[in-house]
Amino acid sequence: MFMSTGSFNQAHIIKGVIAVTVSTMLSSERPDEFSKFDDLFDQAKQKLFEQAQKRNGDGVVDVSFNTEVVRMNVAPKFLVVHGYGTVIALPKKKQPKIQRRMRVITEVVQL
To answer: Is 63 helix (H, G, I), strand (E, B) or coil?
Structure first.
C-alpha cells in the first residue's frame, strides 16, 4: 500500500474517492498545543489506508490534507484534520499458460 500527494502515471484502476476527518480537543490549560497536529496527520493517513484496503486498493493518490482550528463559544478549541484522496488498484499481470501449468505442477509435487 502506498500514498502520494501526486498523481500516478502508470496504468491503474480508479476504485473511488475517500475522505476522513480526525480531531482532538485542546485543554484549557494548554490552548496553544498545536504540536498535536502531527498525531492527527498520522491518524488521518492510517484511516485513509484502512479505507483503501476496504476497497481492495493498492494505493491512494492525489492525497490532500486540510487543517482547521475550531473555536466554540462555550467549549475549548478543537484541532481538525481532513484528508482525502483517490484509491487506485494496479492491474494484475497475467501469467502465460505454461507458467500457470508449471505452478500447479509444482504445488502438486510439494504436497
So the answer is: strand
